[in-house]
């Protein structure tokens, strides 16, 4: 009996502790936060996690193995994302095609790292599932062939055409916005623009398909062969993911039809318990009698690269308010007014959750937006690049935000926006309303993340969730084959009619001749 019980226990253990490979090759801090969230939830659920990323997770658990690929920082120039570069329009970071080739090269370099080669070539390495972050390049999907296990995409943004085409199909550009779009409207011209940009990316992928497929073979062909298998064609692998977990929620994005294997888990990176404020911040909050405005431009953009004159004008402008201003900034500024505090590191969630926090001035990164929604705080968004425009535009459309464009006039525009946001309660009320919706879920997002990953493993890759749209080619979806048939029939009818008419004419003419 005891033996039976023990073997039951070991069975239970072996069925519940899965081996999960998490991969993210984006050396940007916000992606590190998302990585830490996955690792934390999977470890808490008792799984063995191998974390391949430039951000090793600090956790004493025996079930965690970090494979540090921070070396990839030498291959990618993060200074691309700099205030100066953006203000003076030196590079166009909104161009998706540029992003595709940058991240493709980044992944090629990542695979060549010794730690990656060791991991991929070791025949003892076995995983039940791979969770891979998608960022423009689909090449990482080859790991599913290397380890012969299901693949789950981790998407960091609201659902958009590029990711949805991997598990379903492109979004209709007539009512969805291309995710690096700077504006958010659907006039005639906007719809044409949306269609053009979707088609442009689609065309780029199409003409590069052969080249990419070659790279895929180079990266994984010999490794898979060494394991005694044949590498499947690239398209069979990249369109074969079992699931996509999205760092999104219907209130951060638009309400669109999604395939069964797309799951919203936005907010999973936020811890359940709010950590107490550190002493310096606690004192500032305690002293503040008129509320707090929190100002942070995120982790990529260094406020210290802001032009000197703008810094001075911002401080001057903040000093006119009776509210306390907490500014996340690396270096202090001399002669600060009494109500402005500059602090290099801030536990954002603790500040936003504080009842005295009235307003959040942000660059509009999705993590910051999710944290603002979690805490129910209105925002002023100053978008700089990537999906920040669309994040802010959508927040404005939902009624809990205002957007300011970055430029020389920013102190003046910000003054007007802050004044309106503080005086008009509709923004605060809307933020609270949306926060309530954000929290009203069947399961907390971290639990849902774990559930779906386990579901994929338990059901051998969850083929039942796969979208049937993937079985149909693009021309069939657009009924171009039907169009072709109709054109052929019409042409045929035309030719027949013409023939008959000619016959009749000849008959009539010959009749006349006889008469
Ligand atoms: C696609 O995924 C399923 C489920 O993980 C797997 O069984 C199959 O071998 C995969 N096909 C290819 C071509 O990788
Ligand atoms: C808070 O107020 C007290 C008393 O007025 C003052 O001594 C202290 O310096 C203030 N702290 C901060 C961080 O402003
Ligand atoms: C407050 O802001 C909302 C949203 O922009 C607007 O519809 C409303 O008219 C404003 N109310 C006042 C009193 O200005």
Automatic annotation (TrEMBL):
Transmembrane spans: 478-504
Signal peptide: 1-17
GO molecular function: glucuronosyltransferase activity
EC number: 2.4.1.17
Recorded topology in the membrane: Single-pass membrane protein
InterPro entries: UDP-glycosyltransferase, UDP_glucos_trans, UDP_glycos_trans_CS
Subcellular location: Membrane
This protein's UniProt keywords: Glycosyltransferase, Membrane, Signal, Transferase, Transmembrane, Transmembrane helix
Substrates-to-products reaction catalysed: glucuronate acceptor + UDP-alpha-D-glucuronate = acceptor beta-D-glucuronoside + UDP + H(+)
Superkingdom: Eukaryota
Cellular component GO terms, alphabetical: membrane
SUPFAM superfamilies cross-referenced by the UniProt entry: UDP-Glycosyltransferase/glycogen phosphorylase
Family: Belongs to the UDP-glycosyltransferase family.
Protein name: UDP-glucuronosyltransferase
């Amino acid at each position: 009996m005891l033996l039976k019980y023990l073997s039951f226990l070991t069975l239970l253990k072996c069925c519940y502790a899965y081996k999960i490979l998490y991969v993210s090759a984006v050396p940007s801090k916000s992606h590190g936060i998302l990585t830490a969230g996955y690792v934390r939830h999977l470890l808490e659920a008792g799984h063995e996690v191998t974390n391949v990323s430039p951000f090793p997770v600090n956790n004493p658990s025996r079930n965690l193995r970090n494979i540090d690929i921070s070396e990839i920082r030498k291959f990618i120039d993060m200074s691309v994302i700099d205030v100066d570069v953006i203000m003076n329009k030196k590079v166009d970071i909104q161009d998706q095609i540029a992003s595709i080739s940058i991240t493709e090269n980044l992944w090629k370099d990542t695979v060549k790292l010794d730690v990656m080669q060791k991991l991929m070539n070791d025949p003892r390495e076995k995983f039940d599932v791979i969770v891979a972050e998608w960022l423009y390049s689909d090449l990482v999907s080859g790991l599913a062939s290397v380890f012969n296990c299901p693949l789950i995409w981790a998407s960091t943004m609201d659902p958009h055409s590029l990711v949805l085409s991997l598990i379903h199909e492109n979004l209709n550009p007539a009512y969805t916005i291309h995710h690096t779009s700077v504006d958010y409207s659907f006039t005639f011209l906007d719809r044409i623009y949306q269609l053009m940009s979707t088609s442009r990316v689609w065309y780029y992928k199409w003409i590069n398909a052969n080249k990419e497929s070659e790279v895929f073979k180079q990266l994984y062909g010999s490794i898979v062969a060494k394991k005694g298998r044949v590498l499947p064609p690239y398209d069979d692998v990249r369109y074969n993911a079992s699931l996509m977990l999205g760092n999104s929620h219907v209130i951060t994005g638009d309400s669109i039809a999604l395939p069964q294997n797309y799951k919203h888990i936005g907010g999973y990176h936020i811890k359940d318990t709010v950590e107490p404020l550190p002493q310096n911040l606690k004192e500032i909050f305690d002293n503040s009698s008129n509320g707090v405005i929190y100002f942070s431009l995120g982790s990529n953009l260094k406020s210290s690269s802001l032009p000197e004159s703008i810094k001075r004008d911002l401080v001057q402008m903040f000093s006119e308010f009776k509210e306390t201003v907490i500014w996340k900034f690396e270096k202090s500024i001399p002669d600060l007014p009494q109500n402005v505090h500059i602090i290099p590191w801030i536990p954002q969630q603790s500040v936003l959750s504080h009842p005295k926090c009235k307003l959040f001035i942000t660059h509009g990164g999705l993590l910051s937006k999710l944290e603002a929604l979690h805490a129910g705080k209105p925002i002023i968004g100053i978008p700089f690049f990537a999906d920040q425009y669309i994040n802010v535009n959508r927040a404005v459309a939902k009624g809990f935000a205002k957007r300011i464009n970055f430029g020389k006039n920013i102190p003046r525009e910000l003054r007007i926006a802050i004044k309106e946001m503080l005086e008009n309660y509709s923004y605060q009320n809307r933020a609270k309303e949306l926060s309530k919706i954000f929290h009203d879920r069947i399961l907390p997002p971290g639990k849902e993340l774990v559930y779906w990953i386990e579901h994929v493993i338990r059901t051998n890759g969850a083929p039942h969730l796969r979208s049937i749209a993937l079985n149909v080619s693009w021309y069939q979806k657009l009924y171009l084959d039907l169009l072709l048939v109709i054109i052929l029939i019409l042409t045929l009818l035309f030719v027949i009619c013409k023939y008959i008419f000619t016959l009749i004419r000849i008959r009539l003419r010959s009749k006349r001749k006889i008469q």
